[in-house]
Design goal:
The radius of gyration is 26 Å and the shape is globular. Helix 1 packs parallel to helix 4 (62-72) and helix 12 (283-294) packs across helix 13 (299-312). The chain is built from 18 helices and ten strands. The strands form four sheets. A four-stranded mixed sheet has the order 7-8-9-10. The two termini are 43 Å apart. It has three domains: 3-88; 110-228, no CATH class; 240-447, no CATH class. With 459 residues, the protein is an alpha+beta fold.
């Protein structure tokens, strides 16, 4: 995302809306656009109020506001796409041009749509179709689609249509939305046709480490999302050392087999040593392991005691971590057993020496606040940032602390982990922190094709 250019373009569009509202209705407009409520200082003009509201927005919120501006204001297709391209820059998964062409070729002979009206709506929502196809002519791309796709089916192959639309050269996010739209129940209201489409396009998509996955259902039809399949490290996890805010005292019992022994305070740390396959680590898996470890026959007691053990491992100094942990497990209710387990206080690195002893070679991050192991080898780290991430013990801003944090994040990402951060204030000061947790994890699971409720059974 080019936040500087996006901010300039959005600021211009938002300010242009001042003449569509009164001072009384301006707060409602700000709410619709996702802006902070405009200041009510007497004597300020509407332009000054909406400008102050927009200038208070963080860079991270600009893409969402861009989507709302597009939905709220009738922009030309060219202006809409210009704004979206700024907001969507860098959003993946990445689909190189070669594989886009192979995808289009894989669709030869398949139905691109069964509902012509919804197909046209999809094209109109993503592409610039009003432009002329050549100089000195009056017909537009709309006209050519009508002629070669609707009136004379087969005139244009899928590859020609993709080329005319600009699908081979557009940003990744636009291409992803196009493919997801073609697979949608609106455009293809027939499950057999949907699955035939998905099966065909997944062959080239998997070559670039992406695929369409069934992530939801709507009106009795499957819904597919295009996700990356390469975020996780290639190696399978061997030991999970977690639920311990204190550095564990451990040693190799058998270095050849990678067997770990907790030397002291074994009750303060958990080591999950079962194989973790492509389905990741679900709560059910963790509960079964816990029940066997503790000799608990009753599943309800195993569930209760495991949850309590994990919750008690959270540091007393971080109520925000507790809010996120509790919000996650309460939000999804009966579906938790089949969802990835949210593991607290996970040890990423373990070094028998102290940072002082190790000196400049010390590892930057020893422990992760939370870790999820998703299907397909996806590893997601969730961090909750308190003041100690950016301020010294006197509560003064410390750039070196922040620099160490972002350096450690880079190392994690380069190692194949996804990293997401919450500010502690988001969770502590937000009375609806459970809703915040559910919204975040629902979006995360949707991105990676994890059901947050049991999918319908195909008949």
């Amino acid at each position: 995302m080019d936040s500087g250019e996006l901010r300039l373009r959005l600021r211009e569009l938002v300010l242009s809306l001042k003449d569509t509202v009164t001072h009384t209705t301006l707060p409602s407009l700000c709410q619709q656009l996702g802006l902070p409520i405009a200041p009510t200082d007497l004597g300020r003009s509407k332009g000054d109020r909406i400008r102050a509201s927009f200038d208070a927005v963080s860079d991270a919120d600009l893409p969402q506001i861009a989507d709302r501006v597009v939905a709220h204001r009738r922009l030309s297709a060219a202006d809409r796409n210009e704004l979206q391209d700024l907001a969507w820059l860098g959003l993946g998964p990445t689909i190189p041009k070669r594989f886009r062409r192979e995808l289009a070729e894989a669709l030869e002979g398949l139905d691109l749509f069964l509902d012509a009206r919804r197909f046209d709506e999809l094209l109109g929502s993503l592409w610039i179709l009003e432009t002329s196809m050549a100089l000195l002519t009056n017909h537009s791309l709309w006209d050519d689609v009508e002629r070669h796709v609707h009136n004379n089916p087969g005139d244009w192959s899928p590859a020609i249509l993709f080329d005319k639309l600009g699908a081979f050269d557009c940003c990744d996010r636009r291409f992803v939305l196009f493919v997801e739209g073609l697979a949608s129940p609106e455009v293809l209201p027939d499950e057999t046709a949907q699955r035939r489409f998905v099966e065909a396009v997944n062959v080239p998509l998997r070559k670039c480490h992406a695929e369409l996955r069934e992530t939801d259902h709507r009106d009795g039809y499957p819904v597919f999302s295009l996700v990356s399949t390469t975020s996780g490290p290639a190696r399978r996890p061997k030991n999970l050392i977690f639920a311990s805010p204190l550095k564990p005292d451990l040693r190799f019992r058998d270095a050849v087999n990678n067997d770990i022994e907790i030397v002291t305070n074994a009750d303060r740390v958990l080591v999950y040593d079962r194989p973790i396959g492509r389905d990741g680590l679900r709560w059910n898996d963790l509960q079964d392991w816990w029940a066997e470890l503790k000799g608990i026959a009753d599943s309800r007691e195993a569930k209760r005691s495991l949850y309590a053990r994990l919750r008690d491992s959270l540091p007393n100094t971080s109520p925000a971590q507790s809010r996120l942990f509790e919000g996650f497990y309460r939000a999804f209710g009966a579906d938790i057993p089949m969802l990835p387990a949210l593991l607290p206080e996970v040890w990423l690195h373990w070094d028998p020496h102290t940072v002082k002893e190790r000196g400049p070679n010390a590892l930057a991050r020893f422990r992760m606040d939370f870790l999820l192991l998703l299907p397909g080898g996806i590893r997601v780290v969730v961090e909750v940032d308190g003041k100690h991430h950016y301020a010294d013990r006197h509560h003064r801003a410390d750039p070196s602390l922040y620099a160490a944090t972002v350096a450690a994040d880079r190392d994690l990402r380069l190692s194949g982990y996804e990293v997401y951060r919450f500010g502690a204030a988001e969770l502590v000061e937000n009375t609806a922190s459970q809703n915040l947790a559910k919204a975040f994890f629902s979006s995360l699971f949707k991105r990676y094709g994890v059901f947050t409720s049991q999918p319908p059974q195909n008949t």
